[in-house]
Amino acid sequence: MSSVITQSLGNFNDKKFQGRIPKSITKCRHLELLDLGNNRIEDTFPSVLGTLPKLRVLILRVNKLHGSMQSPSTKLSFTKLRILDISNNVLNGNLPSKFFMNLKAMIDVDRDMEYMMMKYYYYDYSARMTWKGFEIELVKILTTITIIDLSGNKFTGKIP
């Protein structure tokens, strides 16, 4: 048995956007999926998106994000995030361990599984991602899947 999760989408993949990510996007309080991949966005990592309380999927791959990732300003940043793809940018520096500690939905998978009560829920959305070096398209993404892709950047130091 499977069910579609009705979600608020922000699909802006491959729209030739350039410049910075507008801070006003944080007013979209019901946004669950934001795909800004394959654009020409030149900005730092948008930690302000961590204030979106329902954000589960964040795809920023293949842009020109630069600088280092900062630790979140609050313990409630990115707590619902299940998929994070920031691959193929020019981010650098150390990965902040506090950022990854906030990814509660990725850490406590068992609680989500109990909540789903053995039904398969999925987003009615497809996304292109890199998996083991191959670009694939995820179709009808299961809500319980967790993915972090940091490849193709210039991070240094230890992985937290």
Question: What do you see in this structure?
Answer:
Belongs to the RLP family. This protein is mostly beta strands and 160 residues long. Residues 1-6 have low confidence and may be disordered. Strands 2-4-6-8-14 form a five-stranded parallel β-sheet, with no helix packed on it. The chain has a three-stranded mixed β-sheet with strand order 1-10-13, with no helix packed on it. The protein has a three-stranded parallel β-sheet with strand order 7-9-15, with no helix packed on it. 11% of the residues lie in helices and 31% in strands. The termini are far apart. The protein has a single domain, classed as Leucine-rich repeat, LRR (right-handed beta-alpha superhelix), CATH 3.80.10. A hairpin with a 2-residue loop joins β11 (127-131) and β12. It has three helices and 15 strands.
| Radius of gyration, taken over Cα atoms and rounded to an integer in Å | 15 Å
The H-and-E topology, N to C, reads as: EEEEEEEEEHHHEEEEEE
Biggest beta sheet attributes = 5 strands, parallel
Basic shape:
globular
Walk across the major sheet and give the strand order. Answer: 2-4-6-8-14
Percent of residues in helices? 10-25%
What is the CATH architecture annotation? Answer: Alpha-Beta Horseshoe
- Going by helix content, strand content and strand pairing, the class is mainly beta
How many individual β-strands? 15
CATH topology: Leucine-rich repeat, LRR (right-handed beta-alpha superhelix)
pLDDT below 50 for ≥5 consecutive residues: which ranges?
1-6
* Beginning-to-end CA distance, first to last residue: 37 Å
Average pLDDT for all residues: 84
**Estimated share of beta-strand residues:** 25-35%
CATH C-level? Alpha Beta
Please report the number of helical segments.
Answer: 3
- How many discrete domains? 1
Family: Belongs to the RLP family.
InterPro entries: Leu-rich_rpt, LRR_dom_sf
Pfam families: LRR_1, LRR_6
Subcellular location: Cell membrane
